[in-house]
Amino acid sequence: MVYIDKEKLVTLFKWYMQEVGDNLVSVLVVDRDGLIVDILTKDSDKLDEKKFIGAFSSLVELVLKKLTQDFDLGIFGAGTFDTDKYRFIFCESGPDHVLVSILNHTALVDDVFPYTYLTADKVARIINGELPVSPVIPKIKRDTELEKIKRKMEYYQSKSHSPEYVYKLSLIGDGGVGKTSMAQRYVHGIFQADYKATIGTYITKKECEFKELGTSVRFMIWDLAGQSQFERLWPDYLTDSRAGIIIFDITNRETFENVRKWYDIITRVALPHIVLILVGNKVDLELSRVVSTEEGMDLAKELGIYYMETSAKTNENIDDVFEWIALQIINMNIEEVKETLFDKQIEEGSKFIISSPQLKILNQHFTKQLDFCIGKSDTKEIIRYLDILKAIEKKKL
Question: Which residue from 56, 92, 158, 317 has the fewest beta carbons nearer than 10 Å?
C-alpha cells in the first residue's frame, strides 16, 4: 500500500479553494475504482460531509465508470459534467487517481482550469512521494487590457535589482523535449529517464548565487506542459514571465520547427523585455541528431535571442543556462537603474531645447576630452556627461 501524505494533500486543497474562491464547493481525490482518497468541503460544519459524499457518489457513478474505462484505454485527461446544482471538473492526477472539483453551477470553468491542472499535478507528485512538493498555489489571473497596462507601469516603476525579489522563469517547448528533466537536474541535481508527463505546469524554486558579485537571483521556475490539450492554459501560465527558456529536442525536428510558435506565445503575455534563450536539449544523443548546431544558432539569431545546447542526462551546460539568464537580469536591472538616475538628473535640471547638430558637437567635444583625462575621476566624469547626452538624445529633449 502506497503511503499518501494526507496532511499535505489537505493543505494543498485549502490553497486551491482559496485561489478559486467561493465557487469551489468541494475538492476530492478518487482512485480509478471511484473510492475517495481524501476530500475537503467548504463550510463542512454547515454541510454534512458524509451525506455530501453519498450524494456525490450517486450523482457521478456513471461518470466514474466511464473514467475507469478511459483510464484503461489510456485516453483520459480532463472533462466536465454538469447537474442542475453543480459543475464537476475531473482531471487525471497520475496513472491511478482523479482530482474532482465540485463547483457552483454558475462557475466559469475556463477560469478554474488553470488552477485545476496545477493542483492535479501537485496531487500526483504528493501521491508519488519521490520529490518535495510545495502545497502553495500561486495566483493565476486572466488580465483585462487595463490590468495589463497597470502591470507594465508597475514594472517600469520598479527598476532596482534585489536578491529578495523572485523572478518568474518559464520553461516552454513541445512535450517530451526534456523541460522537466532540465528543471529537476538544476533544482534537485537528479535525472530520471522515465518522468511522467507534466499536468498543466509544475513549479519549483531555486536561487542562483553569484558570490563574486555579492548578489543572487531567485527563480520561480514554471515547467509548462507542452501537450496540445493544455494549449488554452499556456497564456495564463506564461503571464508575467520575466525570463523564458524555449527548449527543443535535437533528435526531433518537429520540436525545432515549433520554436517560433512558442516564441510568439510567450512574448505576447510576458513582461516587457523578457530575457529569452533557445536551448537544444539531449546532446548526449549526438548520433541521433537531426537538428544541427548551426540551425539552432541561425534560428536564435533570427529571433534575436541567445542559443545554447544541453543534456539533462549528463548535466552538460544546465547550470550555465540558468546562470546566463540570471546575469542578464542583473545587468538589465543595473542599466534600468542607471537610466532612471539620468532621467532624474534631466528632469531636475533646467529644461532646454537642443538640435541634433548641437548634440553631435557636444558628443564630439566630450569624446575628445577622454584623450586628455589623467585620473579615473576625470574619466568617470566625462563618461557621465556622455551618458546624459545619450539620454537626452533618446528622449529628444
Answer: 158
